[in-house]
Amino acid sequence: MHRRNFGRLLAAMGFALAAATAMTPAPAIAQDAKTITGGFDVGPGGFPGNFNPLTATAGFTWLSTYYEPLVIYSADLSQIEGALASEHTISEDSLTYTFNLVEATWHDGEPFTSADVKFTLELAKNADSGSLFAARLADIASIETPDERTVVVTLSQPNSAFLSVLAQVMMLPEHALADIHVAEIAQNDWWSTEPVGTGPFRFVQYVSDQYVELAAFEDYREGRPKVDRLINRYFANPAAAVAALKAGEIQFTFAEPDDAKTFEGNDAFRVIEGDSFVVNYIGFNHRSGLWDDVRVRQAVMHAIDREGIVASLFGGAAKLANCGYVVPQFVPEGIEPYAYDPEKARTLLEEAGWAEINGDAPISWLTYYNTPQVANVMAAIQAMLAQVGINVVPRALDTPGYNGIVRGENWQDFPLVYAGLQNGPNPASLNVGLNAAQLPPAGNNIMRVEMPDLTAALDGAMAETDPVAAEAKWQEVCRVMNAELPWGPMWVASRYGVVSSDLVDFVWTPAPGGGPFAAHPEDWDIAQ
């Protein structure tokens, strides 16, 4: 499609950004209290209304202000460093991990010990708890606690993603949760009424669908935080949060690219731009019967003018993906670029017998992204697919509603999705969404991908702990993904945050799922 024709298509479809809806009220705060208020759960890295880190698919930027993991990614996502574990060692066979713990205190005054780590990891690997980490932690063979400051975790096989997984497993207090039956723990109101962590801020209150309030934890091991309160306000969409930011009601929010541009040259704000580390993809439900023929999946790829969408709807701030990542050292040469070619798409569909498989019957296309930009992207793709004879109907849900469908038993209700898989700086996190061993409910292979060649490639890469050898094995994963198309990779987009210049030492990274990353919120400050 020529660029001018693409532009006409957008205009004909009447694309318009959704207007900002009513903003949530802010809590009443004492005038002398130093407070930072933000839209920490706005955008794709947030998860409004979720307080249980074991069931979180996003929202870790906020959760990590009062919970902490053993290890955590640095703010630039370049390496893993200590958090509640001051240091860790790995045995030569890559099976035994020994963690030395810091001296920390839970918000209720109880000491943090190795018993809490053992309790948390056992709870996280138990699928009955509702944990999304169960399959990812399945390689844990034993957890030993030789003393209160030492934890020894032994794996049944090498797992190159283990530390990356641990970076998202927030430690939980055994003394507060052990008496709750494991099958009831996910729905318990403890998470939203009296959660206890070890982080720099402690939970105060949650006002349903409006805001969450935290207070400085006076006994935080790194010293009392510089501000008295952190407020996380909920907004209907990014536009509403941006309006609140411009009005001075909040000091930080995620922003859509077009909104972020409106702050350029304004010294009252700082715009943060970074790689999302998330590959957006069109997910084929492999149990629906619609996508069994690879030629149909190839036709979807060729029917979409990805370059045109990136140029027109992302303003060029995205990189095309032809497998599960775009990091150069993991992408082999010679893979199929899936160039825009609607005629080839029609030919492939005809060869596959699409008229008999589905024809023009509408196909529900789910997403959890509720932003104007994604609505426009999906509408553009809808029009392009219609031109080759595939009739998709976009349907946006909130994150809990989406998760309830794609992780539930009624998998036939979502033949197609538009989603993102957070591969982060470590490609090993792709395994959770594509390995046949990661099917729900224990794992997160929501597309029910069961491709032997892909699973074998993933298993080989996951078991490789030598970085140089691992690159070649992840290239093989990319090669198989590119050929078999377990889902249709689209792009990796940039993400934006906007911060008031009044904030001092504030750190935000557009990390997948919101991180977590070493943001050191105890150091955040605000000019008064």
List the helices and strands and how they pair.
Layout: H1 3-12, E1 35-39, H2 60-63, E2 71-73, E3 80-82, E4 85-90, E5 96-101, H3 114-124, E6 140-147, E7 150-155, H4 162-166, H5 174-177, H6 190-193, E8 201-207, E9 211-216, E10 229-233, H7 238-246, E11 252-255, H8 257-261, E12 269-284, H9 294-303, H10 306-313, E13 318-320, H11 342-352, H12 354-357, E14 363-367, H13 372-386, E15 392-396, H14 399-406, E16 416-422, H15 431-434, H16 452-463, H17 467-484, E17 487-500, E18 503-504, E19 525-526
GO cellular component, one term: outer membrane-bounded periplasmic space
GO biological process, one term: peptide transport
Subcellular location: Periplasm
What are its keywords?
Dipeptide-binding Protein, domain 1, alpha+beta, 528 residues, 19 strands, 4-stranded antiparallel β-sheet, D-Maltodextrin-Binding Protein, domain 2, 3 domains
Would you write up a description of this structure?
- It is a single chain.
- This protein is α+β, with helices and mostly antiparallel strands and 528 residues long.
- 27% of the residues lie in helices and 21% in strands.
- It has helices spanning 3-12, 60-63, 114-124, 162-166, 174-177, 190-193, 238-246, 257-261, 294-303, 306-313, 342-352, 354-357, 372-386, 399-406, 431-434, 452-463, 467-484; strands at 35-39, 71-73, 80-82, 85-90, 96-101, 140-147, 150-155, 201-207, 211-216, 229-233, 252-255, 269-284, 318-320, 363-367, 392-396, 416-422, 487-500, 503-504, 525-526.
- The strands form 4 sheets. Strands 1, 8, 9, 10, 11, 12, 13, 14, 15, 16 and 17 form an 11-stranded mixed β-sheet that branches.
- Strand 4 (85-90) and strand 5 (96-101) form a beta hairpin.
- Helix 16 runs antiparallel to helix 17 (467-484).
